[in-house]
Amino acid sequence: MSTPVTVRVQQWVVLTSVVLFALKVLAYFLTNSVAVLTDALESTVNVVTGFTGLYSLRLAAKPRDREHPYGHGKAELISASFEGILILVAGLVIIYESIINLVHAHPVKQLDTGILIISATAAINWFVGAWCIRTSRAHHSVALEASGRHLQSDTWTTVGIVGGLVLLRFTGIAWIDSGVAIIFAILIMVEGYRIIRQTVAGIMDEADEELLKKLIALLNQHKRPAWIDLHNLRTIKYGSILHLDCHLTVPWYYNVNEAHLEIDALHALIGEQFHQSLEMFVHTDGCVPPASCRVCPLTECRVRKSPFEGRLEWTLENITSNVKHGV
Predict the structure, then answer these.
(1) pTM
(2) Which are the contacts of 50, defined by CB distance < 8 A and separation ≥ 6?
């Protein structure tokens, strides 16, 4: 089996994190700047979470088995939660080290060289992070998105460090680098909280309203005449796999094969739009004349009991309820 795209990208994330960590450690020994040390400490989180994310993506890519009938996709959520927690811890460490530096300032040296090295690491982090986020959205990977956001939050931390070093270089005011580092530490802690919030929502199978709204708009736009009603719609995401179940109302006189053709059309429509692995469990209901007739646009219906009165517009409220609908 070929290596998934998300795993290949995460492998590059791990390699990049190790190289950048080494460069920041080098910059610290050259400058003796506690701000640079703080940035290097934050990069240790990149290395740890990079390997953790790589393991979770490999695990999530495994096919479902008897012990895991829904697959292994939630391993990504556990990895992303761990990453969010480490980002919060890194922010606290940065604040602590910055306060220590305010009280006991360290003499710095070779700032020009240090600024160049740290600036280069910031640029590399940003572009690799953007690559991760773009790939994660295409393949619906929470773990890879968490890695990308972490790399970009690390970029802003590094920008703050560079800003402090530049000001220190030209003003000689020792507390500036610590002050800037504290500000950006708070920003990355906010990003860590967002990652944790997103992963907890996934672990708790919280309804993704944005995804549901896109799905409902798609269904309303491409509704087939035989799809008289659709209700009890629910979605769950396991890593890159979208699980969807619903009740589809079709004409009561359809045989099994005819009803299955409508399910196949529904599956093809959703799968083409969302470009991800899709598992659907659709329960078919037979229509109930004359109530169903009033919202059924099927012109060739042979047993209509009531005239068609108007098209049923599915909404977030009515499509998620477990009730057949009528006008």
Answers:
(1) 0.56
(2) 10, 13, 14, 17, 18, 147
